[in-house]
Design brief:
heterodimer, A: mainly alpha, MetI-like fold, two-stranded antiparallel ribbon, 11 helices, 2 strands, B: alpha/beta, 6-stranded mixed beta sheet, 4-stranded antiparallel beta sheet, 10 helices, 10 strands
Chain lengths: ~300, ~260
Amino acid sequence: MADTSTTGRRLSRPAFRRAADRVVTQLIGLSGIAAIVILAAITVFLVINSSRALREVGLWNMVSGTDWFPTSEHAKFGFLPAEVGSLWVTAVAMVLCIPVGVAAAIYISEFAGRRTKEVTKSIIEFMAAVPSVVLALLGIALLAPHVREWFNLDTGLTAFTAGIVVGAMALPTIITISEDALHAVPKDLRTGSLALGNTQWQTVYKVVLPSASSGIFAAVMLGLGRAIGETMVVLILAGNSGIIPDTALVSARTMPGTIAGEMAEVVQGGLHYSVLFAMGLVLFTVTFAINLAADIVLERQRKKWRR
Amino acid sequence: MVTAPATTTGMFDLHDVSVTYGSETAVAGVNMHIPPQAVTALIGPSGCGKSTLLRCLNRMNDELGNVKVGGRILLDGVEVNDRSVDPVELRMRVGQVFQKPNPFPFSIYDNVAYGPRTHGVRSRAALDGLVEDSLKRAALWNEVKDSLKKHAFELSGGQQQRLCIARALATAPEVLLMDEPASALDPISTQQIEDTIAELKRTVTIVIVTHNMQQAARISDQTAFMLRESMERPAQLVEVGDTRLMFTNPSDKRTESYITGRFG
């Protein structure tokens, strides 16, 4: 018999153990599939709920429509005011948080001592944990009055104001992922550069940064995705006007802000309701594409260092 | 344009050199002369401070932090740990090749041009000349001359290591430090590296750390044997001398035991 060899040690395994192995493996596999199922369900749900809008207004008419008069007698459902508003808010946020975020990541990864590194990293993680509505409150109390004063405006609730706060929200994402990318650059590249008579700063910007560039790009993309989808801050701070904003210094509405602001007031199943879902579908497509791009770039970077 | 030094320079003199990490003295009392345009091999069992001593010569220990180097280390008569010596300048004159090939994620050309560019060489013609010259000296030119734009990671391990040698040569160093440069390579690549070293020693001083005693015997003119006899005591230089003499007739009993394979 197989399990009573001369040494007394068996080679076979009891059936129940093998069964347990199989069950656990399948459970883990199922959890992995769950994410995909949920994602697919979201897409289907959005499409079904926006089908009336897609049929009666048409996707192109919404996406390229210039007027947003959802409640007037001759209702117009043009997304452009919200799209351009989102663009302004995101642009301001990115202009602010890309340089600051990447610089902070370089400092933490390359120059900070061990203690400073630990402290700054936990502070940044803490920053990510601040609820967005709290940041929005700070923005409305502290930032908006100043923006009004600085630029001599009628209101401080502008795309610019919202952009600054959204930028602050995207900052932890950009710092953390950029820092990971810099950290992943093999140490022997740094020593190699130093041994060639380069200063630490030359080493960082000539070897480490180019080596981590795809990871930093991915960090920026993920930060961008976060900024576009941010809702609470823009709802409170951007001003929600219906016009297409021609600068960042006017009140603007954004796609997430529009959905959140109007969803509670529409008739369930009505056309306006369905249009808001269509807007959600557009927003979801954009953020999904951005995240996908970031993922592809990150995966490519991972492969690069597997040598 | 930077060219290989024609004069006889690149000689080290070490007087009572010690290295201390925090509170632990790793190496102590090293006295030796490293002759110019020759190969000096540092041998000894793992953890005997060979690499530590090597890193003193181009002050790479500075980068580790919390390291104190004592004694005097003279490069052509100048104390390298002197405050007036800039480690950046020192490392241009004392290049280093590491254990694992570490090419940068750029093209072959840009890898070799990296050092000269940092130090202000801008003209395309000068860079082209330096790249070709350095690759020839590292015996890699014939294999890559038609594909200088190729990514360095596409080269084999042995080619990558010769690329790293070319990269170090491009700043026209007088001394080249090599920390087990062939230990991650296959026998044929190792052979090529050794041939390159034999060729290079006509123009540069080479200090090589190696675990492989046959390699030390094959390629070096002078051998230094280091040993750390217990963890309580720092590593020491047991014996230094002509390679042939040391391998045929070592003066210290411990050297003899080590090279005949009784320990280590």
